[in-house]
Design brief:
The protein is built from 10 helices and 15 strands. It is an alpha+beta fold and 324 residues long. Bound molecules: acetyl coenzyme *A. Acetyl coenzyme *A is lined by residues 34, 38-39, 42-43, 117-118, 157-158, 161, 195, 214, 216-217, 219-220, 223, 253-254, 257, 281, 283, 312-313.
């Protein structure tokens, strides 16, 4: 088989949904001031889901994986590769992918995590595509799953209103027809400081701040430019143009970044898949979550050409162009 192709999508959100107004009321009780109006106007976010304390990344991911397998008409025993994109793993080690594999009730296949923060899913999908095309795998599960609520500083209104928890998954199979057409990945480590969780485990204790820190304006400025570049590079590799894109499915961080990217690519806003309003920023989970919502709502159909785009901490960014 020359290509890899997505044969099923799935997602899962923890049941607890928190609206902006509910979050604002909770924050007000600790002296942190925000409002539904501010959050909607600056970000487009209206609500997010938060996992209960006992629920882990692999718990969310395994539900999304089961839903994707069902959509693909596959069983867990058909899977020969599991890649989990996450920055909020269950443990320091082993990987969330191995824990998820066991929860799926299978053993033996390769399983590992990819850490590229909000670009994690486009990174993981690119790795899986390469492994399928070279014959290392025939039926891969590629999952983005996060519990970002665990690393939020609820005393910092500039970040805690932006993120949510969730998971999305795809089944990627060997195919004689494409499939994934092209991808383009990048990183620039000099931007560590603008978006990071600097703390680490050392000598049996957490050293440094274990909560998310972000310079929102610096991230914003970098994001729109690199997303346009990655999209154009991916189209060029595939011999396609903007006009070939049926749906733009960007990382769901901020509606203004997403609209800015669509505008630069001269795409009408009705080709943009938007779920940030309902999910907030779920980091590596946001793209497969948005894809699954668009598939199940009947927006994205078989044969459509999709541009997936991620940007996040690292700084990392990238894009994948595919025929669904
Ligand atoms: N509620 C009310 N007021 C707030 C809040 C809040 N939640 N947060 C900040 N403010 C205030 C600020 O204190 C500031 O007040 P001041 O003018 O009195 O100082 C004012 O609002 C404006 O703040 P800015 O930071 O200038 O707001 P901006 O319009 O830049 O929006 C935002 C901030 C939403 C964070 C924006 O910069 C953004 O979306 N950046 C990109 C973030 C992003 O995409 N991150 C994800 C990358 S993915 C990953 O890897 C995790």
């Amino acid at each position: 088989n020359k290509y890899s192709r997505i044969t099923g999508t799935g997602s899962f959100l923890p049941p607890k949904r928190v609206t902006n107004a509910e979050l604002a009321a909770q924050l007000a009780a600790t002296g942190v001031e925000t409002s539904d109006e501010w959050i909607v106007e600056r970000t487009g976010i209206r609500a997010r889901h938060f996992a209960e304390p006992e629920v882990s990344t692999s718990d969310l991911g395994v539900q999304a994986a089961r839903n994707a397998l069902e959509a693909a008409g596959r069983k867990p025993s058909d899977v020969d590769l599991i890649i989990v994109a996450t920055s909020t793993p269950d443990m320091v080690f082993p990987s969330s992918a191995t824990i998820l594999q066991n929860k799926l009730g299978i053993a033996g296949c390769a399983a590992f995590d990819v850490q590229a923060v909000c670009s994690g899913f486009v990174y993981a999908l690119t790795v899986a595509d390469a492994m399928v095309r070279t014959g290392s795998a025939k039926c891969a599960l590629v999952i983005g799953a996060e519990v970002f609520s665990r690393i939020l500083d609820f005393g910092d209104r500039t970040t805690c209103v932006l993120f949510g928890d969730g998971a999305g998954a795809v089944v990627l199979e060997a195919s004689d027809t494409p499939g994934i057409l092209a991808s383009d990945l990048h990183a620039d480590g000099k931007h560590v400081e603008i978006l990071c969780v600097p703390g680490t485990v050392f000598g049996g204790k957490v050293h440094g701040n274990p909560l998310l820190r972000m310079d929102g304006q610096a991230v914003f400025k970098l994001a729109v430019g690199v997303l346009e570049e990655a999209a154009r590079a991916t189209l060029a590799k595939a011999g396609k143009t903007e006009a070939d894109i049926d749906w733009l499915i960007p990382h769901q961080a901020n509606i203004r970044i997403m609209q800015g990217t669509a505008k630069k690519l001269k795409l009408p806003m009705d080709k943009l898949v938007v779920t940030v309003d309902q999910h907030g920023n779920t980091s590596a989970a946001s793209i497969p979550l948005a894809l699954d919502v668009a598939v199940r709502s009947g927006k994205v159909r078989k044969g459509d050409t999709l541009m997936l785009e991620g940007v996040g901490g690292g700084f990392t960014w990238g894009a994948v162009l595919l025929d669904f």
